[in-house]
Design brief:
Elements (H helix, E strand, L loop, with lengths): L2 E6 L3 H11 L5 E7 L2 H11 L3 E4 L8 H6 L6 E6 L5 H6 L4 E4 L4 H25 L10 E6 L2 E6 L3 E7 L2 E6 L5 E2 L3 H7 L5 E3 L4 E4 L3 E6 L5 E5 L4 E4 L1 H11 L2
Parallel strand pairs: 1-2, 1-3, 3-4, 4-5
Antiparallel strand pairs: 6-7, 8-9, 8-12, 9-10, 11-12, 13-14, 14-15
């Protein structure tokens, strides 16, 4: 299986170096490269890649701002000269964070982990593609270590992506399951569950309050007091969905 890959970096030499290193990995198919973030947004939307190598500091728009404008963003490996953005990168659910100049051994490690995760995700999607979407009335089996639960989805307040796992919040419990948020989003009924941002899916029936937030986004407060930010793009969808 080849993974469709796009490189976004405003430095031509950096793109060339990365392409040269990726040429050693047969599972990677580079379908496009972009030096301009605005052009990259259009290209990513049209080409729908599996994997995105993304710089952070670029003229006109940062890598984080680029991701914010994507409706469905691919898995991301940040490649940057700056180490101070690492925490924020993983907050937006990056697969990995590589510092320039890129070392071949470090790139291989990042790729091996990312490829395995994406392949497992695609296999899971294929397995469930004909399945009926899960609603709040459905019960699901959750296992975390030695603990097991059989949970009504209506009791799940929200899901949070933690690297290659998803944390499920319900009835005072928050187990981790080996699943991607993208895969989970496709299985849940969108009339009841909403993708708030790259990191969270919320149960709409648990929303207690909504208020405007920074940069055109929203912040929802759930009935248990938990507050979750809705990205600007997703905020527009939520307004449409919940308006008369």
């Amino acid at each position: 299986m080849k993974l469709k890959t796009i490189i976004v970096d405003d430095e031509r030499l950096a793109r060339q170096e990365l392409k040269s290193l990726l040429a050693n990995h047969s599972q990677i198919e580079i379908i496009a490269e972009f030096g301009d973030p605005e052009e990259a947004i259009k290209g990513i939307t049209e080409l729908n890649p599996d994997l995105l190598f993304l710089d952070i500091q670029m003229p006109g728009k940062t890598g984080f701002e680029l991701l914010e404008e994507l409706e469905h963003s691919p898995h991301v490996i940040f490649v940057t000269a700056y180490d101070e953005f690492a925490i924020k990168a993983f907050e937006v659910n990056a697969m990995d964070y590589i510092l320039k100049p890129v070392e071949e051994e470090r790139l291989t490690l990042a790729l091996n982990n990312s490829i395995k995760f994406i392949e497992d995700e695609k296999e899971s999607e294929a397995k469930h593609q004909d399945s009926v979407q899960l609603t709040g009335d459905d019960q699901v089996f959750i296992k975390d270590g030695e603990k097991c639960w059989f949970v009504h989805l209506r009791d799940v307040r929200y899901f949070e992506s933690i690297g290659n796992y998803v944390r499920v919040f319900f009835n005072g419990n928050k187990p981790l399951i080996l699943r991607s948020l993208n895969n989970l989003d496709k299985r849940l009924d969108d009339k009841e569950f909403f993708r708030a941002n790259r990191k969270h899916i919320i149960n709409l029936k648990w929303i207690a309050k909504i208020e405007t937030w920074f940069n055109g986004g929203l912040q929802v407060e759930l009935k248990d007091g938990e507050k979750i930010e809705i990205s600007r793009r997703q905020a527009a969808k939520l307004k449409d969905r919940m308006s008369l």
